[in-house]
């Protein structure tokens, strides 16, 4: 299928190489398409994920000349493009979370013993989490999910969304506060 | 309890693994493609045709305070739910069309429907839905004239049996009554763009396409009718996909509508445009009906969707409608 290159250069090198050899850009696809796919699949489900990932790379490719080579890691850039594309599907996203509110908890996947052992699990509070996500303003949700589901750091989120790190922090705090409130704020003292 | 941890777990639960088709997309995106089949082009005038049928009259008539044209002597009734079949054809017969298919303007070839779309206008006229029907759809074609019922590509119904046959085929497939038809061809589209004084598009990459005779550097361009036609016909550009092509077509329509709006203040442009519009489409809708529809649609929003489809099990270059999604879509329009 896809051959791994012997040496993995920085993403920025690939981007700059693609300025003269467009094929070099395909390596970025190999590196990150699966990761981006998983991220979209969480937010919007599998159906639009493939199209959105494809579109993300298409947009990225068309903007490759304006990429700031000072940033070695292209993930925030790609996540930023993807986030914009996801925002066009905000209704679908909200509907997806609302569907989780109604969906019965599938208890076969996990035995009650496991659930007891784990204490509170995401599965047990799925409806509360989904409800909180559905209710979050898009800007706060983008930040929260880029961190929780996209595994970006604060700085990377700031770069992805083109906002100051301070704004990332405040949006994240606001988002998390609402999630905790939805969960009944069982441990208000716990702050990170 | 850590809310971030819970969120991450929820994410893990919702996550899907990428399908093998994702890797194929890489190929499509970054590998130059061979022509998909020998047919030299397939212009989708989807959105353009819709613009003609709906958007442009809306803009032109909907905003006019004193319609100079009063309802004609014969009362027209286009009230209630209406479905309009819009066909973008690549007919190369007739003046102005032959030059787009050198050596192929054979009269025995007939017209080929390149773009098929059903524009659904609900009774309340709040939203118009344009359902584009992929031309590669393999469907059951009913008896048309002397031709026996068969299974084939949907655009072959038009190629052989004309608009009547395509209409019958689609009515049977969708369960919708198709009240009117609008046909647009190359020359008509070109004239419309010229009447608008050209459309502006942004090219992310340079274009050099022999099939559509378009050669332009990257950047923002004002395209005349000829070049705009080349642009909507482009196949081997961007990721080379049909989806990308449809998007380019939509962008042209948006540009056309924007142009049409700005033409409102310029009587000369407006007049030329109206005239071109009437001359460049073939339709059973009278001018009066179009005016009436347009007035009613002045506040309407246009949704563009595609019939849900999956690749044909035997031929990757053909598709079949995805059920029950396709039936559900049409049921929602009934």
UniProtKB/TrEMBL annotation, chain A:
Domain RNA polymerase sigma-70 region span(s) in chain numbering: 28-94
RNA polymerase sigma factor 70 region 4 type domain sequence ranges: 128-178
Stretches of the chain forming a coiled coil according to its record: none
A GO molecular-function annotation: sigma factor activity
Keywords annotated in UniProt: Sigma factor, Transcription, Transcription regulation
Tree of life domain: Bacteria
Listed Gene3D superfamilies: 1.10.1740.10, Winged helix-like DNA-binding domain superfamily/Winged helix DNA-binding domain (1.10.10.10)
InterPro entries: RNA_pol_sigma-70-like, RNA_pol_sigma-70_dom, RNA_pol_sigma70_r2, RNA_pol_sigma70_r4_t2, RNA_pol_sigma_r2, RNA_pol_sigma_r3/r4-like, WH-like_DNA-bd_sf
Signal peptide (residue range): none
Pfam families linked to this entry: Sigma70_r2, Sigma70_r4_2
GO biological process, one term: DNA-templated transcription initiation
Family as reported in the entry's similarity comment: Belongs to the sigma-70 factor family. ECF subfamily.
Entry protein name: RNA polymerase sigma factor
Species of the source: Nonomuraea terrae
TrEMBL record, chain B:
Keyword Transmembrane helix: yes
Alphabetical list of Gene3D superfamilies matching this protein: LCP protein
Start and end residues of each Cell envelope-related transcriptional attenuator domain: 112-261
A Pfam family per the record: LytR_cpsA_psr
Protein family: Belongs to the LytR/CpsA/Psr (LCP) family.
PANTHER family linked: POLYISOPRENYL-TEICHOIC ACID--PEPTIDOGLYCAN TEICHOIC ACID TRANSFERASE TAGU (PTHR33392)
Protein name: LytR family transcriptional regulator
Source species: Nonomuraea terrae
């Amino acid at each position: 299928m896809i051959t791994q290159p012997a040496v993995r250069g920085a993403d920025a090198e690939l981007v700059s190489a693609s300025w003269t050899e467009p094929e070099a850009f395909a390596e970025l696809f190999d590196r990150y398409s699966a990761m981006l796919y998983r991220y979209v699949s969480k937010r919007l489900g599998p159906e639009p994920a493939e199209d959105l990932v494809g579109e993300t790379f298409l947009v990225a490719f068309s903007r490759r000349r304006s990429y700031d080579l000072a940033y070695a890691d292209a993930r925030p850039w790609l996540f930023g493009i993807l986030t914009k594309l996801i925002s066009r599907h905000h209704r679908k996203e909200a509907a997806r979370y609302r569907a989780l509110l109604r969906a019965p908890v599938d208890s076969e996947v996990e035995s009650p013993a496991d659930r007891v052992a784990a204490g509170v699990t995401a599965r047990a509070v799925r409806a509360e989490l989904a409800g909180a996500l559905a209710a979050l303003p898009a800007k706060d949700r983008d930040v929260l999910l880029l961190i929780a589901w996209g595994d970006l750091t604060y700085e990377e989120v700031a770069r992805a969304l083109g906002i100051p790190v301070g704004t990332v922090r405040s949006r994240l705090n606001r988002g998390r506060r609402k999630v905790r409130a939805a969960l009944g704020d069982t441990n208000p003292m716990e702050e990170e | 309890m850590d809310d971030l941890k819970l969120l991450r777990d929820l994410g893990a639960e919702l996550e899907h693994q990428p399908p093998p088709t994702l890797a194929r997309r890489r190929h499509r995106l970054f590998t130059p493609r061979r022509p998909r089949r020998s047919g030299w082009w397939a212009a989708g005038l989807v959105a353009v045709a819709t613009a003609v049928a709906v958007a442009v009259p809306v803009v032109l008539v909907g905003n006019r305070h004193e319609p100079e044209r009063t309802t004609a002597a014969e009362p027209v009734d286009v009230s209630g739910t209406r479905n309009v079949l819009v066909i973008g054809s690549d007919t190369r017969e007739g003046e102005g069309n032959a030059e787009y298919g050198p050596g192929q303007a054979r009269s025995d070839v007939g017209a080929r429907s390149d773009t098929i779309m059903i524009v659904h206008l609900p009774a309340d006229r709040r939203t118009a839905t344009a359902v584009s029907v992929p031309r590669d759809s393999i469907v059951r074609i009913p008896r048309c004239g002397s031709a026996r019922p068969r299974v084939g590509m949907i655009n072959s119904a038009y190629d052989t049996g004309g608009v009547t046959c395509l209409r019958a085929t689609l009515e049977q497939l969708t369960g919708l009554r198709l009240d009117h038809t609008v046909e647009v061809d190359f020359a008509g589209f070109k004239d419309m763009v010229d009447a608008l004084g050209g459309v502006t598009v942004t090219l992310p990459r340079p274009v050099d396409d022999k099939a559509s005779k378009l050669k332009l550097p990257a950047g923002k361009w004002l395209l005349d009718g000829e070049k705009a036609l080349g642009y909507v016909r482009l196949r081997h550009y961007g990721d080379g996909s049909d989806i990308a092509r449809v998007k380019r077509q939509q962008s042209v329509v948006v540009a056309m509508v924007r142009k049409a709006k700005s033409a409102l203040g310029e009587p000369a442009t407006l007049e030329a445009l109206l005239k071109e519009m009437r001359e460049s489409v073939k339709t059973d809708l009278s001018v009066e009906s179009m005016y009436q529809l347009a007035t009613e649609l002045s506040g309407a929003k246009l949704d563009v969707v595609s019939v849900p489809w999956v690749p044909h099990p035997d031929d990757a270059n053909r598709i079949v409608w995805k059920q029950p999604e396709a039936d559900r879509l049409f049921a929602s329009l009934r």
